[in-house]
Amino acid sequence: MEQWLRISLILCTFGFFREFRPSEPFVSDFLTGEWRNVTEDQVNFEVYPIGTYSTLGLLVIVFLITDILRYKPIIIASSVAGIIIWSILLWTTSLFALQVSQFFYGFYFAAEVAYYTYMYAKVEKAQYQKVTGNARAAILTGRFSASVCAQALYSFGIMNLRDLNYLTLGAQTISLFVGFALPSVGRSLYFYSVPKHDTYDSSYGTDNSTHSDTKKEFKSRFSTRKATSLLWTHFLDSYSNPTVVQWSFWWALAMGGFFLVQFYVQILWMAVEDRDHLLNAGVEAILTALGALSAFLAGFLTSKTFRKYDMWVLTVCSLLQGIMIVILSQTNQIYVAYSMYIIFGVIFSFMITLATAFVAQELADDSFALIFGINTLIALIFQTIITLIVMTWLNLNIRLQYLIFGCYFIALSVIYLIASVIKMIFYKDSAVQQISE
């Protein structure tokens, strides 16, 4: 088996079990249920925000440590964090314990950067697209399988909401052992980068008797100076490109809004009066499947013709997302609430795939991880600001929170409407000037 394929299989196995978390679609109902003495308001105002703050605080640190430690230790640590989180959920009952679990959840989320960047440091560039596609497919399969499993087990009375946490804990434990099976990385993108004249050896960390297609192993040395220089170079080269700035702006702001909607939506569903059946996991399964389909379709829309109307697409999609969330904030029909969330999520999957593709096409080699990290950081900053204002300062109820979330996306659509008009005028003036010449 080729080295890149073996790595891809192990990485995909890890990603599948990491994302196999059947308890998550029902976590709010579990936390406020008979197993713990916690109210909805405590979960909304005193528990979940800690996850937001800790993720923001840890993301930059984890990104740098991930590169310094060369990925595998952080991948393993993320599985350990997962085991700690679901152990706390299963065997504690206090509010403080839940808050501690949210700190570990912040690390768990921030450590995703190790999963996504490991492949770029370990396999050759020619295999980037294949490995990335495989990893994405494994993640979606894990989420879909977890949601279907959770809904079936709960609906048929085989497991209650607490029992689902055992499955999640078991999956995190399996991911830990799979993480140990990943080959170590001899280089990294920044702190252990390889000079351009060195040769990459695909057999590094494997049995050289079966891989003799290269002449020498790569050599890498730790260098803070080179890392700082390369980070700054990649930053300037990337964000001096107008296309990267345009799509990164939407990427960051839309992702921040999506995090808010996704993070608190179960609390909103609990506020809906007409809620005879608990179908949270089924909704997540539908969203995952339709989101994957929309992401696949988005891959066909990266042509130059489409780019002429990209601002209008951003405008319309942001407006639709805002409308969906406003309706979600006001409805008392659970199936309407579920539907609005699904439509919102599918639009997001479609647009984030476009944003990723457009940005990736414009980036220099090896800089995608940095830009992904920066855009995610900006998203978390916006998420944190809104969380502080809406939940800590204004202390609004869940419906008013979502009304503001909807207005956030509508405001984003207005920004892009203005940009669309400016771009249209610019193109018209350019066309007139070319004709006159």
Question: How would you explain this protein's 3D organization?
Answer:
By secondary structure, the chain is mostly helical. It has 16 helices and no strands. The chain has helices spanning 3-19, 27-31, 40-69, 72-91, 95-110, 112-122, 128-155, 164-181, 224-239, 242-271, 280-298, 304-307, 310-330, 334-362, 368-393, 398-436. Helix 3 runs antiparallel to helix 15 (368-393) and helix 4 runs antiparallel to helix 8 (164-181).
Features:
437 residues; mainly alpha; 0% strand; globular
Walk me through the topology.
Blueprint: H1 3-19, H2 27-31, H3 40-69, H4 72-91, H5 95-110, H6 112-122, H7 128-155, H8 164-181, H9 224-239, H10 242-271, H11 280-298, H12 304-307, H13 310-330, H14 334-362, H15 368-393, H16 398-436
Helix pairs in contact: 1-7, 1-8, 3-5, 3-15, 4-5, 4-6, 4-8, 7-11, 10-13, 10-14, 10-15, 10-16, 11-14, 13-14, 13-16
Describe the largest sheet: none
Rounded to an integer, what's the Rg over CA atoms? 23 Å
Instruction: Give the N-terminus to C-terminus distance in angstroms.
Output: 60 Å
Which strand-content bin applies to the residues?
under 5%
Assembly type of the chains comes to single chain
Short description:
The protein contains 16 helices and no strands. The protein has 437 residues and is mainly α.
